[in-house]
Backbone:
């Protein structure tokens, strides 16, 4: 699951080329690439604790 979230980085690599071709300026690729990196990092940081919390009640029953 984490690998699929990190796959978001692949399309964000095209942001600079797409923005230059579309004449959108330099802020758009910066924002897109930042979001494409920060969001997976946040997800990765929080995923293990969510999984542990979800599994904790099941472990108590076993």
Residues:
């Amino acid at each position: 699951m984490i690998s699929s979230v990190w796959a978001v980085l692949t399309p964000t690599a095209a942001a600079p080329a797409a923005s230059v071709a579309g004449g959108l300026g330099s802020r758009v690729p910066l924002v897109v690439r930042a979001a494409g990196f920060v969001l997976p990092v946040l997800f990765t940081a929080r995923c293990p604790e969510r999984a542990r919390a979800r599994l904790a009640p099941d472990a108590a029953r076993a």
The two ends are 26 Å apart (CA to CA).
